[in-house]
Design a protein that fits this description.
This protein is α+β, with helices and mostly antiparallel strands. The chain contains 12 helices and 9 strands. It is 51% helix and 15% strand. Bound molecules: flavin-adenine dinucleotide (FAD). Flavin-adenine dinucleotide (FAD) binds at residues 122-126, 131-132, 156-158, 202, 205, 210, 363, 366-370, 372-373, 376.
Length: 387
């Protein structure tokens, strides 16, 4: 493995670091209060190309690959998580189905708009009765002439309320379900029968919205089956491929947040005095932070290595992506606990970034597959590997 970060990626990472420090962090608390990212900030993200970090240049993206996306997310996750989430569905779960399995025509039609941020994309898999057990979805798609008719609903859809286009998974053959009976569709918000339902009030991640999507006899042209006719029934595989990359990049986000929490903690313990000296002098404090720094170092190597593997090998990093998500998201939660611990009462008070990170990182262990689901995937893969 080459440990040298390519120059173009390093340059973009440095630009994002500056953007975070000078423009995003100063408005973090305002965004938290207003539950909204100012439009001029979204426009700056578009201008920087942040909506299409790893989308290939031929489809309008920056073409920085998975490693580039991970390094940029590492920086972007050192502030309010909603900023990364705003661009996250375009770079990740909202575009990847089209990029990985879409026809050339679908890629040319949708990816440039998604990569530029002109359109927002989302990913609609979860339903009231199908979360971890995603194969159990009930949303139905029936072929009627030259179009499919979709009926059902999706819940907890990130950016669902602002999305112009959604990757939607629906059952085309109830007998076969995930084994040849689930199809992935590209659904535009203007299609008849598509509606945004209720917006959730969440524990954290304010500034990013989570919506219900309703399909009430929603008309979707047949040519909007991801991958065309030959992919009818094979959408569940598309969903899993999309989630592999999502899990890896989610790990990168969690690792970046863990690093930020470590930095905040070190700064705080050096200036906070108790018993006549900085609390940084107490070995009990030092040990917690030393252990955390060591685990972050390990997490970073995992993220970079898995990203490098994906760029080199394509999509086959199922086990590694789950390992990265499991390790890094659990670590970020540990980092938040330690950061709160060393900040004492101040860490519990609104306005202190630690308080916000503590709530926001909890989500990383839930979406794109809970920690338990990552363990199931890893176990399945190692049982196949070591006979
Ligand atoms: C803010 C937010 C944003 C989201 N964004 C999106 C999105 O954009 N698109 C989308 O499609 N979905 C999205 N989701 C949904 C998310 O992916 C699911 O919430 C997640 O997969 C867990 O499903 P569930 O909530 O139904 O929990 P459940 O599946 O009901 O799980 C409940 C608990 O049981 C455990 N469990 C379940 N099965 C097993 C098992 N076999 N073995 C051991 N333990 C098990 C789980 O780990 C968990 O602890 C989002 C969720 C949230 C909260």
């Amino acid at each position: 493995m080459d440990f040298q970060v390519p120059e173009n990626i390093q340059k973009m990472k440095d630009r994002v670091k500056k953007f975070v420090e000078e423009e995003l962090e100063p408005i973090s608390n305002q965004v938290e209060k207003e539950d909204k990212i100012p439009e001029e900030i979204v426009q700056k993200m578009r201008d920087m190309g942040l909506f299409g970090i790893s989308i290939p240049k031929e489809y309008g993206g920056l073409g920085l690959g998975t490693l580039g996306e991970c390094l940029i997310y590492e920086e972007l996750s050192k502030t309010n998580a909603c900023f990364r989430t705003r661009i996250g569905t375009n770079n990740g779960i909202g575009s990847q189905g089209i990029l990985i399995d879409g026809t050339e025509e679908q890629k040319r039609k949708y990816l440039p708009k998604i990569a530029s941020g002109e359109w927002t994309a989302c990913f609609a898999l979860t339903e009231p009765e199908a979360g971890s057990d995603a194969a159990n979805i009930k949303t139905r798609a029936e072929l009627k002439g030259d179009h499919f008719v979709l009926n059902g609903s999706k819940i907890f859809i990130t950016n669902g309320d602002i999305a112009d286009v959604a990757t939607v998974f629906a059952v085309t053959d109830p007998e076969k379900k995930a084994k040849g009976g689930i199809t992935a569709f590209i659904v535009e918000k203007t299609y008849p029968g598509f509606k945004v339902g209720k917006l959730e009030k969440k524990m954290g991640l304010r500034g990013s919205h989570t919506a219900e999507l309703i399909f009430d006899n929603c008309i979707v042209p047949k040519e909007n089956v991801i991958g065309g006719d030959k992919m009818i029934g094979y959408g569940f595989k598309t969903a899993m491929k999309v989630l592999d990359k999502g899990r890896l990049t989610m790990g990168a986000c969690a690792m970046g947040t863990a690093q930020k929490l470590l930095e905040l903690s070190v700064k705080f313990v050096k200036q906070r005095h108790q018993f006549g000296r900085p609390i940084a002098n107490f070995q009990g404090i030092q040990f917690m932070l030393a252990e955390l720094a060591t685990e972050i170092y390990a997490a970073r190597q995992m993220v970079y290595h898995a990203a490098w593997l994906r760029d080199k090998l394509g999509t086959s990093i199922i086990k590694e992506a789950s390992m990265v998500k499991l390790f890094c998201t659990e670590l970020a939660n540990k980092a938040a606990r330690i950061a709160l611990e060393v900040h004492g009462g101040e860490g519990y008070i609104k306005g202190c970034p630690v308080e916000r990170f503590y709530r926001d990182v909890r989500l990383t262990r839930i979406y794109e597959g809970t920690s338990e689901i990552q363990k199931l995937v890893i176990a399945r893969e190692i049982f196949k590997e070591y006979n």
